[in-house]
Amino acid sequence: MPTIKKFDGYLVNPTKAKRVITPAYDGMRPSERREFAGKHPYNYVNVMRTLEEFDGDGPTLEEILAFNLSNLNRLLQDGSFLKTETPAYYLYSLKQGSHEQTGVIAEIPVSDYVSGRLKKHEDTQLVKENMLTRYHEAVGVTSSPICVAYPDRDDLSVAIERAKNNAPYLNLSTWDEVIQTVWRVDDAHISAEMERIFDEIEFTYLTDGHHRCASGARYSEIASSRPSDEKQNVNSNYLLVALFPQSHMRIFSYFRCIRDLNGMSSTDLVSAIRSAGFQIDSISIKDADRLLPERTAEITMIVEQSAYRIRIPCQMIDANNPVASLDVSILQDRILAAVLGIQDARSDSRLSYMPGVEGISGLISRCRGGWPVGFACVDTKIEEVIGVADAGEVMPPKSTWFDPKLRAGIFLRSV
Question: Do 220 and 234 touch, CB atoms closer than 8 A?
Answer without folding.
Answer: no
